[in-house]
Amino acid sequence: MKHLWQRRSLTWLGLLLAFVLVVAACGDDDTAETTGTTSAPAATTTTTAAPTTTAAAPTTTEAAPTGKPYGGEAIVASDQEPPTLNTFAPGGDNFIVSIVGNGYWTGVQDIDGFTLELIPEVVTELPTVANGGISINADGTETIRYTILDEAVWADGTPISGDDFEFTYNTIMDPDLPITRTVYEDIDPATVVAGPKTFEFTLTAPTVQAELIFGFLIPKHDVEGSDFINDWNDTMWVSGGPFEFDQWQKGEFIRLTRNANYWKTDAETGQQLPFLDSVIFRFIPETAALINSFKAREVDVINPPPSIETIEDLQTLESEGASVEVLSGPIWEHLNFQFGDNRLVRNAGSYNEFLEYRQAVAHTIDKTKIVDEILKGQVEPMSSYVDAFSPTLSLGAWDQYDYNPDTAIALVADLCARDDTDCDANPVSTIFSTTSNNDARVTLSQLFVEMFADAGIVYENQLEDSSLFFGETLDFGNWDLGEWAWVGTPGFAGLVSIHDIFDPEGAPPDGQNFYRWGTAAVEGADPEGFNQGASSVIDDNTARFAVLRDDMNSTVDVDELTEIIHEAEQILADQVVIIPLYARLDPGAVWADELGGYKHNPSQAGDTWNIEQWYRVDL
Which of 61, 293, 341, 579 is most buried, taking the most CB atoms under 10 A from its CB? Predict the structure, then answer.
């Protein structure tokens, strides 16, 4: 299985809507998966784009008098090769498809590499209730309006129009095509209105998930009448981005060339973008060869495997002109408590239902030591799950739990002083379970031994192979204290959806509250392991959270959503339902003394999110 850092993906809507509710089980082996060699296969295939009606931009290495230099080429290396160039086709959800596609695609939104927030791409602004782009109608439907930038054109000079939006919608809704239709299927086709520079439609019900649709536009005038799935695998339709597809030599590289009709300008200088004449994507499947190519300056940019050894090796090059940026990636690890009956299968003396115990565990965990040992201090510990979705919205609600064994000991004493506990007969204990074939998680389990001992809590490790842990153990709730990862995504859509995993009305198998926090009894489910009694914790907090979860799924007002998410975050922290630990590392490396404008982006957009801004420093 490919690592999630390799497949961070992809077709945005497919990942950003289905993302969170898939456990980050891939990557249980922390070493990179490599296959093949760097040599070309015996038979290579070369595909060249059909010419457009616009002449190619002249190659130049002259610098603007007061601006950034034009000309030159950038080489981006990856350990994967696209299975297709068509993001809507099977295999189009692969991360490398997006990395290359950022050079020629256009759509409604992008993810800013500096703020990790959604920003407008081909439209004047992202529609909201406040700016009039979204209206909630009297009949409970939601109307969305886009205004397309006047200057936005395809590479052949044809204006990007509402007709392209409508054609994209019709293509996605074609029942004969294997395309994910989530959210698009909720559009009432009778309400679609396309104008020269406008597009409008109405959804049958309000949903914040609509912020992610039309992330990729298909040019009607170039694609209409073609075999959509088969004709656009090895070549690409006319570009709406900064570069045009030029050549794909299978097994070796893809080459893009400058789009002379690109409509964006540099905010600092006012120059037309892009600056580069061309970009080459080289495919080097072996990690060692990928790193060595960067060291030898044969490539300019890499997004290497997130291993500490690789990162520290690359950081030694910074004195020679390299820049290595290590950020918190979208995959975030967390501790969690099981509240269902089957926690007792793992630990007959589990105290998970008691808040004092969960608070004691929160003060037992030394997150700084965990990050220092596992990630060598490359990033900071997480203070909230919201950090992985929209850092600017995070309350940092778990900062209330500092590492303090004395506080943990006092909380355990309070627990044992309760009338409904008997710590003499049932000593306070923890049994920790996670995957045994993930080096970072094994290290985590070893670090816990001393931490829990310092807090006076009896502790035991019971790690399992990932196939068992992410199978029966997760499905049936057969753990006491557990640890795994989820995937975060920018914007409100992902942040709203992640709350489904805590939904008290969502017990498995129908729901995804694997923790069984606040869930009712499950009966008549198949297989039998799903059938359990009501959660050991059902109270005013779980009831309120269920209301909040419904509320956030029924509004598209940003201010309302923010208030609801803040309250939900505070409940989860105050009740210690989970303990966010850290996000996995996501490194990006560039020879900064040769290439300017690069900004590592750990989100689904990838490092080529602003490829139009790259320029050669050495010209």
Answer: 579
